[in-house]
Design brief:
- There is one protein chain.
- The protein is of the alpha+beta class.
- It is built from five helices and six strands.
- Strands 1-2-4-3-5-6 form a six-stranded antiparallel β-sheet, with no helix packed on it.
- Strand 1 (47-52) and strand 2 form a beta hairpin.
- It is globular, with a radius of gyration of 17 Å.
Length: 196
């Protein structure tokens, strides 16, 4: 179970082949990018709130989103943030614009799958980040009507308390609840033992 959660948290892995083809709002953040290089976390989508309201280090992120629906922040992304690539192809129905076959282009994937897996495995072999995976702060969020609040420094073990659910950071900076009942694709095994 913990290994499955670490998979969803993005540690010690790069995107799977299926995840590489997803638009940023559906692709989870991973410690390594598609080419096997370490990558930073994307900037959070929403209004960052400091420890003392307007100042101090960011402790939570607030954003408006619908209280129901499969993709409850799509409308707010289009209207409030001007992200037109999230708009459905037929304005109010169909797939979103950046999730169509027209956007799929394999021309930039010049490295082979085994080469990228070996690169991640080699970097993880020397990293001592076991404590980070087990004890690092988690993302935990609550939805209050149309306000979604995510605590970005929730202590490990407290991420599923009260109304909060552990969340996963996506590449567009959004945090969404982790659904552990969905099996994680294991074609890119997490952890240092990456197949070559």
């Amino acid at each position: 179970m913990e290994q499955n959660l670490n998979w969803h948290r993005g540690y010690d892995r790069r995107p799977t082949e299926e995840e590489e083809d997803l638009p940023p709002d559906k692709r989870p953040w991973t410690e390594y990018d598609m080419m096997g290089n370490k990558q930073d976390r994307p900037p959070y989508k929403g209004l960052p709130c400091g420890t003392f309201c307007c100042w101090g280090s960011t402790c939570c992120v607030c954003e408006c989103q619908w209280c129901c629906g499969e993709d409850n922040d799509q409308c707010c992304d289009v209207i409030c943030l001007g992200r037109c690539e999230r708009m459905p192809v037929c304005i109010c129905c169909g797939p979103q614009c950046d999730d169509t076959d027209c956007c799929d282009c394999d021309c930039c994937r010049c490295c082979s799958q085994p080469g990228r897996s070996a690169k991640v495995g080699w970097q993880e072999c020397c990293s001592m980040d076991c404590c980070e995976k087990c004890c690092a702060p988690r993302y935990a969020g609550c939805q209050f009507i149309c306000l979604h609040i995510t605590c970005i420094g929730c202590p490990a073990g407290c991420e599923n308390c009260l109304c909060c659910k552990e969340e996963q950071l996506r590449m567009d900076g959004d945090c969404v609840p982790i659904r552990c009942n969905q099996p994680a694709s294991m074609d890119n095994t997490p952890g240092p033992a990456v197949s070559v």
